[in-house]
Amino acid sequence: MQAIRDFSERYADQWFFAPLLLLLGTVLLVAALRLVVMPLLRRVTRRTRGTTDDQVLARLGPALYLTVLVLGLEWAGVLALKPASPVWLHRVAATLIIMVWARFALQAGGIVFRAVHGGADRYRWVHARSLPLFQFAYKVVLVAVGVSALMTAWSVDLTGWLASAGVAGLAVGFAAKDTLANFIAGVVILMDAPYKVGDVIIIDDVTRGEVSEIGMRSTRLLTVDNVEVTVPNAVIGNAKIVNESSGPTLQMRVRANVGVAYGSDIDQVRAVLADAARDLPHVEPQEEPVVRFTGFGESSLDFLVLVLADHPRFRPAVSDELNTRIYKALGAAGIAIPFPQRDLHVKQWPAPPPDPAAGAPS
Predict the structure, then answer these.
(1) Which of 12, 252, 318, 334 is the most buried (most CB within 10 A)?
(2) From edge to edge, which strands make up the β-sheet containing 301-309?
């Protein structure tokens, strides 16, 4: 203690003493936050069920440390440059603090939205289909607040900017009409909710896949080929959408059309088809397969086999397995599968054309 007192009395009149002392206090405060305050807060958050608060707290610590360091450096600079305190020093410090907390707000918001999306069925006030809209609105508001705070920190008058925003908005509107159309269609999709993330949809009977993301500009589908397809929302807004996952349950009927030769025993065909359709993978075991005699074809007796797949994403695999078993079962039972045949009857061959060389004089 005596050494510290002697040091203070010796260097108290020096210009660097106060800034150095302030920097030392700043470092000690950051150490206290890191070694004492944050561990106590972690103990509190660990008692909760979820991990959302732990993830938010992990991002809060660096934001606090950087804020304290920036403020300490700012006031140390003020004391070092005293009595002339430059305005730019305060503006730079304010800019850094705004950027730090804007980054924290963006990260914390993403964590909260992911948590709400994962447990959307537990919250009555939110729907999974509207979460992307809320997330986009949150980012827009965050960016607007951050830009406004930066302008205020640098004493920029926003009146002129707001006045010119109307004229600039018209120009941007004409230049980005396709983007605006996609944005408006995205809002309509989120409100009308013809599909949601995880649904299997078909667009215009061409593109089929599982919805992996619904954005404000486009919707992303993951096809059975493990290829991601990005479709603009404006295209989806004017297309026919078939949602295979929007029924009362996720189960889906899989059909197999079968034709057997005329003269086949219908009861035997029913039994063979029903046995072939039982115990399929990814098929509801309690649901018996349905076999129907649908009609008389030109060269076959037509049957329809129906099974219930557990999920629309299993439809290709179930259809492949069902067709394979049916073909093998009919072959093993000796039941013929006809194919179109045509008999051609020639009544009269046309007469050959006369030979010009035969009629020429010798």
Answers:
(1) 318
(2) 252-260, 301-309, 290-296
How many angstroms separate the CA atoms of 356 and 362, rounded? Answer: 13
Question: Is the separation of the CB atoms in 234 and 179 below 8 Å?
Answer: no
Q: Name the band, by pLDDT with cuts 50, 70 and 90, for residue 49.
A: confident
Give strand ranges (E) for 183-243.
200-203, 207-214, 218-222, 228-232, 241-243
Upstream peptide bond of 83 is cis (omega within 30 degrees of 0): yes
- Our measurement of the distance from residue 119's CA atom to the centroid of its chain's CA atoms, rounded to an integer in Å, reads 16
Strands (E), the chain: 200-203, 207-214, 218-222, 228-232, 241-243, 252-260, 290-296, 301-309
For residues 345 and 324, the answer to whether their CB atoms sit within 8 Å is no
Report how far residue 84's alpha carbon sits from residue 205's, in angstroms, rounded to the nearest whole number. Answer: 73
Tell me how far apart the alpha carbons of residues 362 and 344 are, in angstroms, rounded to a whole number: 43
Are 281 and 325 in contact by the 8 Å Cβ rule? The answer is no
Supply the pLDDT for residue 120.
Answer: 54
Q: pLDDT digits over 162-182, tens only? A: 666 666 666 666 666 777 788
> Is this model's pTM higher than 0.85 or not?
no
Side-chain half-sphere of 79: how many Cα atoms within 13 Å? 17
d(CA 55, CA 324): 50
Quickly list DSSP for 61-101. HHHHHHHHHHHHHHHHHHHHSTT---HHHHHHHHHHHHHHH
CA-to-CA separations, 326 to 55, 143, 280, 285, in angstroms, rounded = 53, 60, 12, 18
